[in-house]
Amino acid sequence: MDHRLDTLDEAITEGAQSPVSGVNSALIAGDAIAHIPKLRVLIELPAYLLVQISWFAAFGMQMVIFPFLLKNELEVSGTLLGLAQTALAAPSVVFILLGGVVAERAEGKTLLTAFHLAAAAPAALLGLFVLEDNLTYWMMLLYALAMGTVGAFMLPARDAILNEIVERRRASGSQITLHQGVAFATLAQFAAQILGLWIGGQANEETAGPLLWVQGGVVGLGALAAAFLVRGRVVQSQVESPGTVMKDIADGLRCVRRDPVLLCMVLSMFGVGVFVIGAFLVILPIINHDVYHSDAEGLRNIFVTFWAGAFCSSAAIVRLRNPSRPGRFLLIAQFTGSAGILILIGGAPYWAFLSLVFIWGLASGVSIMMSRGIVQAAAPGPLLARVLSIYQLGFMAGAPVGAALMGVIADQAGPHLVALVPSLGMLTMIAWMGFFTPIWSLRPVSASSAGQGDKD
Fold first, then answer.
1. Does 373 map to a domain?
2. 68: Cβ–Cβ under 8 A, 6 or more apart, which residues?
3. Beta-bridge partner residues of 27
4. How far is CA 20 from CA 16, 28, 387, in A?
5. What residues form DSSP beta bridges with 25?
6. Running DSSP on this structure, what letter comes out for residue 237?
7. Fewer beta carbons within 10 angstroms: which end of the chain, N or C?
8. pLDDT per residue over 231-251, tens digit each?
9. CA atoms within 13 A on the CB side of 146
C-alpha cells in the first residue's frame, strides 16, 4: 500500500491508544513528515492563510450586511436585533463540542473544503430573497441558524490543524514558532475582515442582494485554497457510538476543568462573549442608526476602524516569537478596551467615537492573539481540537446571552447608558483573573514551540 499502512503498523505495534475514550485505535498521519515534498510543506501555511482570509472576508461582509438588513431594511427593534444576533451565535453552543470531536476523527483538509462550500449556500439563497423583495425576519433567523451551525464545526477544524502545519514547517527546517503561526493567522483574519467590512459597507437597497452572492463566492473560494493543504492526522476508531462521542466530549471537559489556565481562559471567554460581543453586535449598530443616523456606510466605518486597530496591534507584536508574559499582555489589553467603553456613556462626537473604536480594536487585537496562543500552547496535543472547541464554546455561549441582554437593555435604557453593563462586567472579570488566577504570572506553557532568547 503506502506509508499510511506503515504508520498504522508502527502505531499498533507500539500499542497506541486513541484519545477517543474506551476505544483502542491508532493516530494515523495522513502524510508522514518525511514523505512530504518540501515544496508542499512550504506552500501549506500560505494556503492555510488563504483559507483563513476566505472565511473572514465573508464574515466581515456578513457583519455589515446582516445588521443592515435587520435595522435599515426591516427596521426591527433592538430586542429583535438582539434575538437575530443570538440566532447567529446560538448554534455554536449546541454543536461546537461535537465539532471538536469531528475535527479529531475526520481529516482537516476534507472538512474545510466541505464547510466552505456549505457556508456559500445560505448567503446565495438570502441574496435571492433580497433581490426578489421577499425578505422577512424569519428568513434572517433561518440564515443565522444555518451560518452559525456551519461555523460551529468550522472553528475547531480550522484552528486545530494550525499546530500540525507549524510542526511540519519546523521539521522542514523553518524556525517558526506556534506563537508566530497564531500571529500570522490572526493578522490574516483581521486583514480579511477589514476587506470584507469595506465591501459590505457598499450595501444599500439595490446592492445588498448581489453583495450576498459575492459573500457566498468569497467563502466558497476557501474550498479551493484547502486543496493545497497536506492531509493531516486523524483518529481512527474501531467502534463508534453516541456514547463514545459523549465520553470524548467528557474527556475534553475534564481536561479543561483540571487545568487552571485552560479553565480560566474558557471562563474569561464566556465573559468576553457576554460583555464584549454583546456590545459589539448590538450596541454599535444601534448607536450607528439611532445616535449618528447612519446606514451601512456608517457600520462599515465602525467595524473597519475596529479591525484596523486590531490589525495594527497584532502586527506590532507579531515579531515576538514567544512572549514571556502572555497573561499580562492579555489582561492589560482587556482592561484598556473595557475602560474605553465607558466613554460611550457621554455621547461623544463622531470623531471621538471612532477614535474610541480604534483603541478598542488595538486592545482586542492583543487580547485575541494572546488568548488563542495561551490555549493552543497549554492544550494537550491529543485533545487539542476538543479543548479548542470548549474554549470557543465559552465565547459562543456568552455571545447569544450578551446579544439578547444588550438588545433588551438598549431598548429600556438607551444606547448610552447600556455601555455601563459591558464595561463594568469586563472590569470585574479582569480583576478576578488578575488576583485569583495564574494568568497574571503565566509564562509560556509549551517550550517545544518556543524560540530562544525571546523578550517581552
1. yes
2. 200, 203, 208, 295, 296, 299
3. 235
4. 11, 13, 14
5. 237
6. E
7. N
8. 765 544 444 555 576 787 788
9. 17
| One-letter identity of residue 223 | A
CB burial of residue 346 (10 Å; 0-12, 13-18, 19+) = exposed
At 74-106, the pLDDT tens digits run: 888 877 887 888 788 778 778 877 877 787 777
Q: Does 48 fall in a domain?
A: yes
Partners of residue 455 on adjacent β-strands = none
The helix/strand/coil state of 29 is: strand
C-beta of residue 25 within 8 angstroms of C-beta of residue 18:
yes
Q: Closest Cα partner for 286 from 84, 93, 61, 57? A: 84
Could you list the residue range(s) of the whole structural domain that residue 265 is in? 36-227+245-436
Answer for the pair 354, 301: CB distance below 8 angstroms, yes or no.
Answer: yes
Q: Which three cell numbers stand for residue 411?
A: 431598548
Is the four-CA dihedral 277, 265, 253, 106 of positive or negative sign? positive
pTM greater than 0.70 (yes/no): no
Closest CA relative to residue 52, chosen from 219, 281, 269: 219
C-alpha cell at 177: 514558532
